[in-house]
Design goal:
The complex is a heterodimer.
Chain A (H helix, E strand, L loop, with lengths): L1 H5 L2 E10 L2 E11 L4 E5 L6 H8 L7 E6 L2 E2 L4 H7 E4 L11 H11 L5 H12 L14 H13 L5 E5 L7 H16 L3 E5 L3 H5 L3 E6 L2 E6 L1 H8 L2 E6 L3 H9 L6 E5 L2 E6 L2 H11 L6 E5 L3 H20 L1
Parallel strand pairs in A: 3-8, 3-9, 6-7, 7-8
Antiparallel strand pairs in A: 1-2, 1-4, 4-5, 9-10, 11-13, 11-14, 12-13
Chain B lengths: L5 H17 L1 H21 L7 E7 L4 H12 L3 E3 L6 H10 L4 E5 L3 H6 L5 E7 L3 H22 L15 E7 L7 H31 L1 H7 L4 H31 L7 H25 L3 H18 L11 H7 L3 H15 L3 H25 L6
Parallel strand pairs in B: 1-2, 1-3, 4-5
Antiparallel strand pairs in B: 3-4
Classes of the chains: A alpha/beta, B alpha/beta.
The structure holds adenosine-5'-triphosphate and magnesium ion.
């Protein structure tokens, strides 16, 4: 199959309903081999469900797709062998030790030279000295790291990681992302869902979904450009009331407070500059035009989607 | 569809063993339940209970009747309550369950005894609990013989025959059928095993689902049959341990005879264990959470207890209940055990109680494999 060589993940028009709730709506995605693909979206937008569809844990109501060239419905067995899936919620066995968990995973994938594989994984994790500890007694961040090590144990060619760094400290996160880039350089593809902007910026490509629908796809730059937003940064104090005031102006589509700065975005830069200048005249606030950030765009997308779907639901 | 893998299967078995070992409560239940049951039953079903309250109505007191009542008291089986000396009082007490026996010495008993007419003593027994009254009743004729030997000496020596000089007529009231204690022990074995094994395996799969670990299991290449059979293995061993505990108890506490061979007993136990585990795994594939699994277990357990002949005599049940009963593995296991332990039956006589269990296991197992969901839907 040619598609297998070209794409690590290729899904088209996936749909999934739970009851009468349309959780995944016509999802189409393409992930290249060796690509780190960021999957973003607000809570309940359908990220986890989409990932489960891709690794054959859920059957789509309609649509088709393949992972590593294997059909997601008919060849789920092959996908399971070659894909490493890390669940959002820790789903290893609390009442097994760290070593026993890894050993179990190694057996499930029928790995040769099991004890060496497990020992190496423990070493890399830095958990060799605590291998006999029950997994349930690990801290949240360490559980996350154990889960990550376990899902990579069988050297999958595609990683599906559902919020792998939730609750992980900054140093460990940086190490983790360095590792992801090392893997990607070796040709391993990664689809990773996250809520962190700094992580989104480290991805080769991004997709943003809300209410089950894909709203934007591409590199960070492409997504920012496609949003067509201009942003002005206001610096000073009392920004809360300023934000409220600006929000009402037609040229302003959104305001976001970041500590002592306020990002004011709108579609039309001159109109935006004019609006901010008029509204805030004489307040002694610093005003400068800045490049629109990914976060501004995502907040914009989410707001738009909410407006659209609120209308559709009514 | 990939094939069977022993590595994966053994991985599941090991995991199950390790988790079981750390699950103190379940582990205690698995080993503790048969022991507790045995000990409880050991006292509750005392096959030789003594000091049973008894009313004695003597229409014409004599030297002999006084001696007989004293002998009853002395035997320690009967505690004669002297206040209940009228028929009306005694019958009412029997109805209320305050006495277990009413012994009536009819008018003219001593006279006709001395004439060698072999008169009868009438005993009314509360046979609602036949195991309680059985032993006491069986010592009565022997008591009669001994008292006769002692009292009827001197001029009456010629009356001292080999058989007792008078008869004892027993009316078993309320429950003319009577179950023997031997019925209960093999039955207890089946009851303990189906209770703990069905419940433990019933929880095995739902636990994975409830804790979210099922998602992980499903994401690996492991096959349904590997998971199902792998999860069963530890419980097969547990079932055998339980069987052993009960067999030892049956011997030690109840003196249940072993006429058959021990290998046959264990083969029968294995057969029954397989049936119980298949049920447990099926229930756990159907249940959504652990609570439901427990509810389903009880739902399965009740008809087994009630209709298998463990609690009530099988032949006494209506036709439809017997039909349901003869589907249940416990019914056949009970008969198999009684056949092997008490009658020393061979395979030919046992076959009618073997194939229904095999068929049952196969069908239930099929349901389990079909009900195993390979996705999270
Ligand atoms: N098994 C299920 N049955 C019914 N509804 C479900 C099920 N799984 C998910 N949903 C619903 O589908 C929607 C999408 O859920 P999903 O877990 O995919 O979101 P998500 O994007 O991963 O959210 P989060 O960022 O919070 O992890 C939610 O509204 C959720 O309630
Ligand atoms: Mg999620």
């Amino acid at each position: 199959m040619t598609i297998g060589n070209e794409w690590a993940i290729a899904v088209d028009g996936l749909n999934k309903h739970f009851g009468d709730k349309h959780v995944v709506n016509n999802l189409s995605l393409r992930v290249r081999p060796g690509e780190i693909f960021g999957f973003l979206g607000p809570n309940g937008s359908g990220k986890t469900t989409s990932i489960r569809l891709m690794c054959g844990l859920l059957t789509p109501d309609s649509g088709s797709g393949s992972c590593l060239g294997y059909d997601i419905v008919r060849e789920a067995e092959q996908i399971k062998r070659n894909v490493g899936y890390m669940t959002q919620k820790f789903s290893y066995w609390d009442d097994l030790t760290i070593r026993e968990n890894l050993d179990f995973v190694a057996r499930m994938y029928e790995m040769p030279d099991r004890s060496a594989v497990v020992a190496r994984a423990l070493d890399e994790l830095g958990l060799a000295s605590r291998a006999g500890q029950l997994a349930g007694s690990l801290s949240g961040g360490w559980k996350q790291r154990l889960a990550l090590a376990a899902c990579m144990l069988h050297q999958p060619r595609l990683l599906l990681l559902d919020e792998p760094t939730a609750g992980v400290d900054p140093t460990a996160r940086r190490d983790f992302w360095a590792e992801l880039h090392r893997l990607a350089a070796k040709g391993i593809s990664v689809l990773v869902s996250t809520h962190y902007m700094d992580e989104a910026e480290r991805c080769h490509k991004l997709a943003y979904i809300a209410y089950g629908s894909l709203l934007a796809q591409g590199t960070a730059g492409e997504i920012v450009a496609a949003a067509g937003l201009a942003t002005v940064c206001v610096r000073g104090s009392g920004l809360g009331s300023v934000a409220e005031q600006l929000e009402r102006h037609p040229a302003v589509s959104q305001t976001v407070v970041f500590g002592d700065t306020l990002h004011v975005s709108g579609r039309d830069l001159p109109a935006l500059q004019h609006a901010v200048g008029v509204e805030l005249a004489g307040r002694g606030l610093g005003i400068e035009v800045i490049p629109t950030g990914l976060e501004d765009v995502f907040i914009h997308l989410m707001k738009q989607a909410r407006d659209n779907f609120a209308g559709a639901d009514a | 569809m990939s094939g069977w893998s022993w590595t994966r299967w053994w991985g599941i078995v090991l995991k199950e063993f390790r988790q079981l070992r750390r699950d103190r409560v379940s582990f205690a239940m698995v080993i503790g339940v048969p022991i507790i049951q045995m000990v409880l039953f050991g006292y509750a079903i005392n096959s030789d209970p003594r000091h049973l309250p008894t009313a004695v109505i003597v229409h014409e007191p004599s030297e002999f009747t006084r001696s007989f009542v004293a002998a009853m008291q002395h035997s320690s089986y009967f505690d004669v309550l002297p206040a209940l000396d009228s028929e009306a009082l005694a019958t009412a007490a029997l109805d209320r369950g305050e006495v277990m026996f009413v012994l009536t010495v009819p008018p003219g008993f001593t006279r006709s005894l001395l004439r060698g007419e072999r008169p009868d003593l009438l005993v009314e027994a509360d046979a609602t609990d036949p195991t309680a009254t059985g032993m006491a009743l069986s010592v009565l004729p022997e008591l009669a013989r001994q008292v006769a030997l002692r009292e009827l000496d001197g001029p009456w020596l010629k009356l001292r025959p080999a058989d007792p000089p008078f008869g004892v007529i027993v009316h078993r009231r309320y429950n003319p059928e009577g179950i023997t204690q031997y019925n209960i022990i093999p039955g207890l074995m089946g009851v303990v095993m189906s209770m703990t094994l069905v419940m433990m395996t019933g929880l095995a799969m739902t636990r994975e689902r409830e804790r979210g670990t099922m998602e992980n299991l499903l994401a690996t290449p492991v096959q349904p049959l590997e998971v199902i059979t792998g999860k069963i293995v530890p419980y097969v061993l547990i079932g055998l341990v339980q069987a052993t505990v009960i067999l030892l108890g049956a011997r030690g506490l109840f003196d249940v005879p072993f006429s058959g061979n021990l290998l046959a007993v264990y083969l029968a136990a294995l057969l029954f264990i397989a049936a119980s585990l298949a049920v447990g795994i099926t229930l756990s594939s159907l249940a959504r959470n652990q609570l439901q699994a427990v509810q389903l277990t009880i739902f399965y357990f009740l008809p087994n207890i009630l209709l298998s002949g463990f609690m009530f005599p099988f032949r006494g049940m209506p036709e439809w209940a017997q039909r349901i009963g003869s589907i249940l593995p416990l019914t056949h296991f009970n008969r198999l055990m009684r056949g092997i332990l008490l009658k020393g039956n061979g395979w030919a006589e046992q076959w009618p109680h073997i194939w229904p269990q095999l068929l049952f296991t196969a069908l239930v197992m099929l349901v389990a494999v079909l009900a195993y969901r390979k996705t999270l839907d």
